[in-house]
Write a structure and sequence with these properties.
Radius of gyration: 14 Å
Distance between the termini: 40 Å
Number of helices: 2
Number of domains: 1
CATH superfamily: HIT-like
Oligomer: single chain
Helix content: 10-25%
Strand order of the largest sheet: 1-2-3-5-4
Shape: globular
């Protein structure tokens, strides 16, 4: 397992092994659950609280200009590891020519509006 950078009662966080950008981190529940929609309300709340803490760590170390936060659910949505994981992806001014649309870019022709 990767080095844990933050933890809570129900969740763990570590840097992504294949980062999209410097500081890309993952938050996962301690309990093995494949789908975000199978988490308990307490697990969801715990993951969200931990992602806020990880954001502060990433802010201090990498100084990004923005963030994308995402969870892939199901193979059709790109999930390849079937243990829930939330991506905290730091964004930097100029990292793409036009960031408008953000996460809508998962379907590139739908990103611009």
């Amino acid at each position: 397992m990767k080095e844990v950078i933050a933890s809570s009662e129900r969740s763990l966080a570590f840097y992504d092994g294949f980062p999209v950008s410097p500081g890309h981190a993952l938050v996962i529940p301690r309990r093995h659950v494949a789908s975000f929609f199978d988490l308990t309300e307490d697990e969801v709340a715990d993951m969200m609280a931990l992602v806020r803490k990880v954001k502060l760590l990433v802010d201090a170390r990498f100084r990004p200009d923005g963030y994308n936060i995402g969870i892939n659910v199901g193979e059709a949505a790109g999930q390849s590891v079937f243990h829930v994981h939330m991506h905290l992806i730091p964004r930097y001014a100029g990292d793409v020519p036009d960031p408008k649309g953000g996460v809508r870019g998962v379907i590139p022709e739908k990103q611009k509006y």
